[in-house]
Write a structure and sequence with these properties.
By secondary structure, this protein is α+β, with helices and mostly antiparallel strands. It contains 15 helices and 51 strands. The protein is about 20% helix and about 25% strand.
Length: about 800
């Protein structure tokens, strides 16, 4: 061990304040919110934005980098708190920062547990740099968006460079999105890291060296944020504070969605719509891919295949279908040919440049130009292009191919030296190379579409779907995992991708159901439709040349299974919409890894997901336990965290509590010291689903679309257990009137008396909105009774649920009227 290594161990691991006094090669300057430490070449600045959030920057001595961000909200980026200075750093109420003489950073909690420590000083390589952090064998890493591969990123390495990668596989990297945010979990403590650098960044979580993890970039700033939990939920909520939560979507966006590349001509779309209604398959959305356009030119309609386009949209709307159309960002290069998107863009100088001229690359329309979305004025212009579609009644828009994809080169994108002219509030007005802008280009495209919708209809919630994005892009668009394949492995891959997307901010996400590339077998399509009923976006989509994917294509037996799961999604719509509304406030995703709800489910605090790769939470209460190998016919293990659980389908109660006594060890699982797993035998048409004891799940009568008013009571399905509670939220589903108080939110709790009677207590509703139901039905799950259903007339219930309580005995359910709030 040499002197410098010994110094690192003493200074960084033992955290001796004497180190800063022993060295004289650095200068320190304490600020109100942190510290600056400089050596002969660099300055390391660490600021506390909150007690649990740090911002770390390194820049050449005397030359601070531009303080701007595409990802981080201005109010978060500029936040600061007062800190308590120490000899080698500072403290907040949650964290301690220590900086060594060689500018190596160590962050601990106040008990001295090391949360993150530099393994070496930040290494320069020309304009690039490497950041090295100490890694232990017990570290787990999650996030980075929808990168293929396992949920846990430990031992893997990745590159951030948005890439059109048709038919990607589990080992493919990069693909469509660059979200440089991850969670590090160590010994039950979680730290989030956002590396806010838009260049071609990279991450290595122990792939090259098992004793460290590294990240870096070939250019751009050293600028990253540390978000402390210690619980993972708190880190995810803090990331939403930093970059913004997923906004509340329109209610219809949570319904079933049918798509294909492509439904053309018009008669084919009408045929599919009619069959969906005739077969009573609840559906809310139909999608139109590029073939509805004239010669694949964005913002056009082919008058031959889609005559009277406004009439078609109005017809679909009357049948309670919302139509979403694709609007790729490449504008056909058609000078003097009467193509308005090009003519208006060229007149306003809206397109990116190469060597001083409009850059032209080949995409679906042929030679195309590309808007310069780093200019606010260009984004404003882009928004105006939607005026006619909006007038026609189109409900939402799909920004595809926005990596940006270009067919000309093996890189599948535009050259590195294409120039973008940044003219954006908060940024220095300057010209930037494509290497800096590439990873935010798709996000700024979706931002322009989102803002354009708001400009046209300020009180209507937009729906935008994007393929490419960056950290913070969840503010403007939902997303999907791109051009997946019709294989069992891609069905299995869907769960970790959506979970990591949710952890990375994108709560509204999905995968092409059935697989985009290729044709699924009947069993694969059925299994996929079953699983997707419990995912945020449920869109069946397929490529040209593949067999049909619609639910009815494999005969009545398969269609019945598929319909059953789509119907269950609609029955759960109050629960799903309530979860989405909570997401819009706290940033917690709709689908969640087990560790988000049960971070300490194992004795050594390793994430339970490592033992249960097919499992996930759908909202806070429902656990979906798909097979980790969905084409396998052998039994598989379901790992339920300790506690009371109920089979969602049968109501069977599963007591997974583990006592402390030695005589109970035989029911423990040796791998995690929790309850032994449940063995499940896969069966056609069956997806194991469980509900956490202590949950109250709101449910609705079945409808064929979210625009249809349910007939009957709102059902509160009560699963008794500890801390029993639930909430229901409603509003008009389309507008922003909820911001002015026009919403309905009611909280429920339940308790079980010694004689077994269950009391459901109902808080006074919040908000002025009147929901669709006029009666409540309480269903108790997991009780063996001899009673039959009781109604309000037969039960001694006279109070309405405005702050009242209802006790149910000897009955599985009770229904009673409610008063208008």
């Amino acid at each position: 061990m040499n002197v410098s290594q010994a110094s690192f161990l003493i200074c960084s691991l033992l955290l001796s304040s004497a180190c800063s006094q022993a060295e004289t090669s650095t200068n320190s300057h304490h600020t109100d919110s942190g510290i600056e430490v400089s050596d002969q070449t660099d300055t390391l600045r660490v600021d506390a934005l909150r007690d649990d959030v740090l911002r770390v920057r390194l820049y050449p001595l005397g030359h601070p980098a531009e303080d701007a961000s595409w990802a981080v909200l201005p109010q978060a980026r500029t936040a600061h708190i007062a800190v308590t200075s120490s000899d080698d750093g500072f403290k907040t109420s949650a964290l301690a920062v220590h900086i060594g003489s060689d500018l190596k950073l160590t962050v601990t909690d106040l008990a001295g547990h090391i949360l993150q420590s530099d393994a070496a000083p930040i290494a320069r390589d020309g304009a690039g740099f490497h950041i090295n952090k100490i890694k232990s064998p017990e570290d787990h890493f999650f996030g980075l968006g929808d990168k293929p591969g396992p949920l846990d990123r430990a031992g893997e390495s990745f590159v951030m460079w948005n890439t059109d990668n048709f038919g990607w596989q589990e080992s493919t990297d990069p693909i469509y999105k660059s979200i440089p945010f991850f969670l590090e979990m160590h010994e039950g403590r979680t730290l989030g890291v956002l590396f806010d650098n838009t260049f071609r960044t990279w991450f290595d979580f122990g792939h090259e060296r098992t004793d460290r993890y590294t990240f870096g970039a070939p250019g751009g700033p050293v600028d990253y944020y540390l978000l402390y939990g210690p619980e993972p939920k708190h880190v995810v909520e803090t990331y939403a504070w930093l970059t913004g939560p997923t906004p509340l979507p329109p209610l219809w966006a949570l319904g079933y969605q049918q798509s294909r590349y492509s439904y053309t001509p018009r008669a084919r779309l009408e045929e599919v719509a009619a069959r969906l209604r005739a077969d009573q398959i609840p559906t809310d959305v139909l999608w139109l891919d590029i073939d509805f356009q004239e010669k694949n030119r964005p913002f056009t309609v082919d008058p031959q295949t889609f005559p009277d386009f406004p009439g078609l949209i109005h017809k679909m709307t009357a049948e309670h279908f919302h139509t979403i159309v694709i609007t790729d960002l490449h504008i056909a290069h058609l000078p003097n040919q009467g193509y308005a998107p090009y003519d208006s863009g060229e007149a306003g100088d809206r397109f990116v440049k190469l060597h001083g001229q409009e850059y032209v690359g080949t995409v679906w329309p042929g030679p195309s130009v590309f808007p310069d979305f780093t200019q606010k004025s260009t984004r404003d212009w882009w928004g105006t292009l939607y005026k006619q579609f909006d007038a026609d009644g189109v409900a939402g828009f799909w920004n595809d191919m926005n990596e940006p994809a270009v067919f000309t080169y093996p890189t599948k994108t535009m050259p590195d030296d294409v120039q973008h002219r940044i003219d954006e509030p908060g940024f220095v007005k300057r010209t930037a190379p494509h290497t800096e802008i590439h990873n935010v280009y798709g996000m700024e495209n979706s931002r322009a579409t989102w803002d354009g919708q708001l400009a046209l209809r300020p009180n209507v919630r937009p729906f935008v779907m994007t393929r490419a994005s960056y950290a913070g892009g969840q503010r403007y668009a939902s997303t999907w995992t791109g051009d997946n394949s019709s294989t069992w492995n891609h069905l299995r891959q869907t769960t970790p991708q959506l979970l990591n997307l949710g952890l990375s901010g994108f709560a509204m996400s999905g995968a092409d159901v059935g697989g985009f590339a290729g044709s699924p077998s009947p069993a694969l399509l059925t299994s996929w439709l079953m699983l997707s009923a419990f995912q945020p976006i449920d869109r069946d989509h397929s490529a040209k040349g593949t067999r049909d994917h619609e639910p009815w294509v494999d005969g009545p037996e398969q269609e019945a299974i598929r319909r059953r799961y789509i119907e269950e999604r609609y029955r759960l719509m109050p629960y799903l919409y309530t979860t989405a509304e909570e997401t819009s406030r706290d940033g917690l995703p709709i689908v969640r890894p087990l560790f988000l709800e049960f971070p300490h489910a194992t004795s050594d605090n390793h994430p339970l997901d490592s033992d249960a790769p097919g499992e996930f939470f759908f909202g806070p209460s429902i656990l979906v336990a798909a097979s980790p190998s969905p084409d396998e016919v052998a039994p598989y293990e379901v790992h339920l965290p300790q506690g009371i659980w109920y089979d969602y389908w049968t109501g069977e109660k599963l007591d997974r509590r583990v006592a402390v006594g030695a005589r109970d060890l035989e029911i423990r699982d040796a791998a995690n010291n929790g309850p032994r797993p449940v063995m499940v035998q896969p069966k056609e048409g069956e997806l194991p689903v469980y509900v956490k004891g202590g949950s109250i799940v709101p449910m609705a009568p079945l409808v064929q679309s979210t625009e249809e008013r349910p007939v009957g009571p709102l059902t509160l399905r009560v699963f008794p257990g500890d801390n029993c509670e639930g909430t229901v939220y409603q509003d008009d589903g389309v507008s922003y009137d909820f911001r002015k108080g026009s919403f309905f939110r009611q909280h429920f709790t339940c308790s079980v008396a010694a004689d077994g009677a269950v009391t459901v207590s109902m808080a006074k509703p919040e908000g002025s909105f009147r929901p669709w139901w006029t009666s409540l039905r309480i269903e108790l799950v997991g009780r063996k009774t001899s009673g039959t259903e009781k109604t309000g007339r037969n039960q001694p219930i006279t109070a309405t649920p405005l702050g009242s309580a209802v006790t149910v005995t000897n009955a599985e359910s009770v229904t009673f009227p409610v008063a208008a709030n």
